[in-house]
Amino acid sequence: MAIIPIKNAEQIEGIRKASQLAAEVLDYVAPFVKPGISTGELDKLCHEFIVEHNAIPAPLNYCPPGYTPYPNATCISLNDVVCHGIPNFNKLLKKGDAINIDITVIKDGYYGDTSRMYFAGEPSIMAKRLAKITYECMWLGIMEVKPGAHLGDIGQVIQDYAENSGYSVVREFCGHGVGLEFHEEPQVLHYGRRGTLAELKPGMIFTIEPMINAGGKSIRAMPDGWTIRTKDRSLSAQWEHTILVTDTGYEVLTVSPNMPPPPNFAKQK
Ligand code: MF3
Ligand code: CO
Ligand code: CO
């Protein structure tokens, strides 16, 4: 198993700052998500906000092995798009559209990564329920985080809750270590078995970002080389936080003034 980096106090403070800025971008863009705006325009607003805050949008020109450079500052994934939707000035939001906006910033050399779901106007009951269950999946995973827990604990609670709700978990993409690089060890699977995989230790930082489909778990890649859709065209939802393993549990690093509150079952003392 590859080595999972443990961050020191100075690195944690830098990653905390980057994570907060990423979350503040999501606060900033929220009121613009309305029928009639294009995903290209939403990307441009986020890009400008990031640059004005002396940071760099990490996706822009990001080019993992086997990929072409990513063309934009953000990923904006609409309805049946699972992830990595490429913003487009010709793609106008319609009433009831569900979108995920995924922001990763580099601030003073440190990375923070977070995404949220938004609706353009009033969503269908189905889209609303999928986004809510997916949000609860993320939080159930977060609540497993403490020293001595295993990555498989996170995977199992997410998989159990998603599948018991009649949904499926995307397998091909996972959470990841983050902070000094965009994608580091470990991989954080959103399915699995309790007690398996790496043991968590204080100072580890990783994302939890379940992609949950209303239909089957299968996906297909679009010819643009990035956009991922559900194979059966069913709706997909995703939420993402960057999480620090503390001495006693977890700290959500991607916090901001207007972030959605945790579900009632996750309210901390
Ligand atoms: N932010 C995404 C994640 O959560 C990664 C996007 S890669 C990009 O890991 F190049 F598409 F931006
Ligand atoms: Co992300
Ligand atoms: Co991520």
Please provide a written account of the structure:
It is globular, with a radius of gyration of 17 Å. It contains four helices and 15 strands. The chain has helices at residues 9-29, 39-52, 125-143, 151-164, and strands at 56-57, 75-78, 81-83, 98-107, 110-119, 168-169, 175-177, 184-188, 205-208, 211-213, 219-221, 228-230, 236-238, 241-245, 250-252. It is of the alpha+beta class and 269 residues long. α1 packs across α2 (39-52). A hairpin with a 4-residue loop joins β14 and β15 (250-252). The strands form five sheets. Strands 1, 2, 4 and 5 form a four-stranded antiparallel sheet that branches. Strands 3-12-11 form a three-stranded antiparallel sheet, with no helix packed on it. Helices cover 25% and strands 23% of the residues. Residues 102, 104, 113, 115, 240 line the site of one cobalt (II) ion.
